[in-house]
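Why do we bother with a discrete structure alphabet at all? Because it lets us treat a fold like text: something you can write down, compare, and reason about line by line. To make this less abstract, here is a complete entry for DUF4066 domain protein. Read it the way you would read a sentence in a foreign language you are learning: slowly, and without expecting to understand everything at once.
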Amino acid sequence: MKVGILLYDKVNLLNFAQIHSFLRTFEKISVKTYAFKAEIIDESGIRLHPEIYGESLYGIDMMVVPDGIGALSLRYDEIFLSWVRSGSSARIKMCFDLGALVFGGAGFLIGKEACIRGGYKNALSEYCMVNEAKLCDVDGVISASEWGEETRSRLVEILG
């Protein structure tokens, strides 16, 4: 399975590291970092260099969008969202907390429900129904409001 973790300016580095570290424990999957541009600056100013940048996301099996305050503005950036949509054929789309706003902006949450932490429920409600749970899984689109045991368990089920 080919997994792509999407990086963007003001991504939450801790959430990215948790996801990346966990996914790397599965031998049968290939994990790569993708970004729209060559250099990403996280929420605290750390520079990141993705493995693949500026290329289509077509062909990945699982697309993962980490949490990050940058998602608040990127959900309106049509050029960035067009790039995200290039991964629409991914069987599994997973987002964490504010990353759900990227999926919302890209149109992946139409007719679905997703979850997000409390203060951002109104923003998410622009795109879909808001679920109060910590994890929501609807038709291959998984949203998690936090990195926790429930999220890890669901990923183990999927990646087995």
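What the structure line is telling us, in plain words: The CA atoms of residues 1 and 128 lie 28 Å apart. The first helix runs from residue 13 to 23.
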